[in-house]
């Protein structure tokens, strides 16, 4: 599983500073050309092995900006290790 950044991002940079694997880039380096921050799903490990929960989501001052994307095969998942999400729901898109 990976996180993604929605279009309500205020571009504060908090998530970039907290990502332990460098999976987040700003709007200038967004490979889609969109004017938003971007998370490389193939790099994002949802902080498994680094933090108790995704550091980017904890650092983000905007509620609902950082959400969980689709499960990517072979990628670590908090569901696999039994960790609870912040709000107790499962925002994974099925």
UniProtKB/TrEMBL annotation:
<protein>
    <submittedName>
        <fullName>Ferredoxin, 4Fe-4S</fullName>
    </submittedName>
</protein>
<dbReference type="InterPro" id="IPR017896">
    <property type="entry name" value="4Fe4S_Fe-S-bd"/>
</dbReference>
<dbReference type="InterPro" id="IPR017900">
    <property type="entry name" value="4Fe4S_Fe_S_CS"/>
</dbReference>
<dbReference type="Pfam" id="PF12838">
    <property type="entry name" value="Fer4_7"/>
</dbReference>
């Amino acid at each position: 599983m990976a996180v993604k950044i929605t279009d309500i991002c205020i571009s504060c940079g908090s998530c970039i500073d907290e990502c332990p694997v460098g999976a987040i880039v700003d709007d200038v380096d967004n490979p889609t050309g969109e004017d938003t921050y971007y998370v490389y799903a193939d790099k994002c490990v949802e902080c498994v092995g680094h933090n108790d929960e995704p550091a980017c989501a904890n650092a983000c001052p905007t509620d609902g900006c950082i959400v969980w994307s689709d499960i990517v095969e072979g990628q670590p998942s908090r569901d696999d290790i039994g960790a609870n999400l912040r709000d107790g729901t499962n925002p994974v898109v099925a």
